[in-house]
Design goal:
Keywords: Membrane, Metal-binding, Oxidoreductase, Transmembrane, Transmembrane helix, Zinc. This is Enoyl reductase (ER) domain-containing protein. The chain is α/β, with parallel strands linked by helices. It is built from 10 helices and 18 strands. The strands form 4 sheets. Strands 3, 5, 6, 9, 10, 17 and 18 form a 7-stranded mixed sheet that branches. It has a 6-stranded parallel sheet with strand order 13-12-11-14-15-16, with helices on both faces. α3 crosses α4 and α6 packs parallel to α7. It binds zinc ion (2 copies). One zinc ion (ZN) binds next to α3.
């Protein structure tokens, strides 16, 4: 595609809370070191919008509202820009690693770009996003999608990378037991990863019965509603003389869930928090002291995409069962964001086709 710069495309722009507009824009021309990607599929995520979008210029990108949404996407290389070093060519199938980092702060200098002091994201912080027909990607954000992995699965690499990073950061090892609190998309994907990596038991706590069914589909061995059962007592019953699981994953951003997580891990067990909190929870500190338990945080991903590609390519993790709707960009607000607000429990991942083609090649 040689004359992309003369063409226009449609893009979903976030102007503010409840104000997402589908706008006509110029297709970007790839600059030095950039590759133009025609987006195939882009997932919708709970963080799309007000929590992370900049209301003042982002310290790295300099962009403020409106910004193009979409950070979970796959696509096909349409044009390779000047001075691209890697072996990219038209037609290559790719996914985008969405973290934008400064490269200069304490965290970045130590290889923890996912904990950058100025952290930003493609599709939230300016620079374009996946809810548009084209994205001009710096080449370092690209990962090659294995030939046997579909573009639809490719669009779920981002949340799968979050889950794989959380499991790795928690120090999980084959044969361990785990409790997952919250069966939203991240809780479900964490469950999939735990099962694929050989957990001996995965227990899930989730108030919605529809979501508990999804956790069962992901391979969880036991499901409980925290509204009907005493989670800590159930975990103790199931883990026998261990009196708790090795690791509890908090993916609910709920104080009761976090307290249950802390009480449900065994002596010297680990609580891994992957939630983003809007309120500070109160926690039983003495439980940490006297049972030598640890709480860790995990944020997005770093060096996790190779493991994501291996898991999808080998078939140890299959995600297509968790696509609950596919929609064209025109339906983004009604069929996407509103649907997620009103029928949240029915959905794991809604995938959007920015070009509007719902029957795309593998
Ligand atoms: Zn996301
Ligand atoms: Zn940094």
């Amino acid at each position: 595609m040689s004359n992309a710069s003369q063409k226009t495309m449609r893009a979903a722009m976030f102007h503010g809370a409840k104000d997402i507009r589908i706008e006509e824009q110029q297709v970007p021309t790839p600059k030095d070191g950039q590759v133009l990607v025609k987006v195939a599929w882009c997932g919708i995520c709970g963080t799309d919008g007000p929590i992370l979008c900049p209301d003042k210029p982002h310290p790295i990108t300099g962009c403020s509202l409106p910004v193009c949404l979409g950070h979970e996407f796959s696509g096909i290389v349409a044009q390779v820009g000047p001075n691209v070093k890697g072996d990219w060519k038209e037609g290559d199938r790719v996914v985008i690693e969405a973290v934008i980092s400064c490269g200069e702060c304490y965290a970045c200098k130590r290889g923890c770009n996912n904990a950058c002091a100025k952290l930003g994201f493609v599709g939230l912080s300016g620079l374009g996003g996946g809810l548009a027909e084209y994205f001009a990607s710096p080449e370092q954000y690209l990962h090659r999608l294995p030939d046997n992995v579909s573009l639809k699965s490719g669009a779920m690499c981002e949340p799968l990378a979050v889950a794989i990073h959380a499991v790795r950061r928690a120090g999980f090892q084959k044969g361990m037991t785990a409790l997952v609190l919250g069966a939203g998309p991240i809780g479900i994907f964490i469950t999939k990863v735990l099962i694929a990596q050989g957990a001996s038991m995965v227990i899930c706590s989730e108030p919605s019965s529809t979501r508990r069914d999804k956790a069962r589909l992901a391979g969880a061995h036991h499901m409980f509603s925290p509204l009907e059962s005493d989670i800590v007592a159930e975990v103790r019953k199931l883990t026998g003389s261990d009196l708790g699981v090795d690791i509890a994953f908090e993916a609910a951003a709920n104080e009761h869930a976090l307290v249950a997580a802390i009480k449900s891990v065994k002596t010297r067990g680990t609580v891994l928090n992957v939630s983003v909190w809007s309120r500070e929870p109160k926690i039983p500190m003495n439980e940490l002291v006297f049972s030598e338990k640890a709480i860790l945080g995990a944020s997005c991903y770093r060096d996790d995409h190779p493991a994501v590609m291996d898991a999808l390519s080998s078939g140890s993790i299959k995600l297509e069962d968790f696509i609950t709707a596919t929609i064209p960009l025109d339906k983004l607000v009604d069929g996407g964001f509103r649907e997620l607000l009103e029928n949240n429990e029915q959905h794991v991942k809604i995938l959007v086709s920015p070009s509007g083609e719902l029957n795309q090649p593998f």
